Amino acid sequence: MFSLLLLLSILLSNYNVYGKLINDFNQLEINSCDLFKGNWVYDDDYPLYNSSICPFIEKQFDCLKNGRVDKDYLKYRWQPKECNLPRFDATEFQKKLKGKQMMFVGDSISLNQWQSLTCMLHAADPQAKYISKRIGGTSIFTFPKYNTSYLMYRNAFLVDIKTENNGARVLELDSLSSAAQWKEMDVLIFDSWHWWLHTGRKQPWDFVQDVNSTYKDAPRLTLYEKALNTWAKRVDSEVDTTKTKIFFQGISPDHDNKFKQVSRCNATIEEYNRSS
Ligand SMILES: *[C@@H]1O[C@H](CO)[C@@H](O)[C@H](O)[C@H]1NC(C)=O
Ligand SMILES: *[C@@H]1O[C@H](CO)[C@@H](O)[C@H](O)[C@H]1NC(C)=O
Ligand SMILES: *[C@@H]1O[C@H](CO)[C@@H](O)[C@H](O)[C@H]1NC(C)=O
Ligand SMILES: *[C@@H]1O[C@H](CO)[C@@H](O)[C@H](O)[C@H]1NC(C)=O
């Protein structure tokens, strides 16, 4: 799962966020294998954890408990076209990260990946003690046996939203106050997009602030680009990239209810296919 994260941020050196990224993204290869060319294949050895017995999974991510009836979706893994990914080995993973801290920052996709990873690690060594705590907005999951920490900071926009005295919520495109905690991390994994599309009741801000100007709204891709520029600059100023590995998971997919007639947790792939 770890190796599926898209490596983009390191390519952001001139702050020309989109455009440049897409070019480089297609050429990104590791050991001359393009990890992003491939498809999802059925694998009988999956899943790597059972959500029913992961004691700390949040309800929203426990599809089994939420009544989903089909199970096939649990059995897929990514298969690059030109090479094989090593099998996930939790012990090896923990040993490699000994004494290190890995932090996810982003929206529910990041939260989901953080939860999956900690469930996978717990499932592989259920006797190993774990400590789960929350400090401010940061959730910290630690395995003392391996001295590894997996952190999650939920921030759907990456940049700040501040509430003014009059109650107005301001999306501050040039401010990213949580960046200070990145310094300590050995691995940083970011994602953002989905929330930029929300309007109306689901939009959690009233105004946009961009350096010296405040306005009501603008094309969302423009706002997103400005925020990613702020983010990229902060990565450069806060993070020692010779020590810390940085991943940007691309954009989180949209997930509104396109399939109204089957918008329930227990719908099956077949029902979705029939309805689309
Ligand atoms: C997950 O665990 C539950 C409870 O122990 C069990 O009933 C179920 O069969 C397990 N599912 C899988 C896919 O292993
Ligand atoms: C455990 O890891 C932390 C960094 O996360 C490090 O500061 C500390 O020295 C390590 N402790 C031991 C006992 O290795
Ligand atoms: C913002 O305002 C400050 C203080 O007036 C000024 O120094 C700065 O150049 C302005 N920045 C931009 C991007 O307009
Ligand atoms: C799926 O859930 C709905 C309620 O959301 C329920 O009415 C229906 O009976 C369930 N179907 C199955 C096959 O469990």
Q: So how many helices? A: 5
The portion of residues forming beta strands comes to 15-25%
Cα-based radius of gyration, to the nearest Å: 20 Å
The unreliable regions are 1-28
The major pleated sheet works out as: 6 strands, mixed
- Give me the count of strands: 12
Mean pLDDT value:
85
What is the molecular shape?
Answer: globular
Instruction: Give me the side-by-side strand order of the main sheet.
Output: 4-5-6-3-9-12
Question: What does it look like?
Answer:
With 276 residues, this protein is of the alpha/beta class. It has one domain. The chain is built from five helices and twelve strands. The chain has a six-stranded mixed beta sheet with strand order 4-5-6-3-9-12, covered by helices on one side. The chain is globular. The N terminus is likely disordered. It binds 2-acetamido-2-deoxy-beta-D-glucopyranose (NAG) (4 copies).
Primary descriptors:
4-stranded mixed beta sheet, 276 residues, TBL_C, alpha/beta, membrane, TBL_N, binds 2-acetamido-2-deoxy-beta-D-glucopyranose, 12 strands, 5 helices, disordered N terminus, transmembrane helix, 6-stranded mixed beta sheet
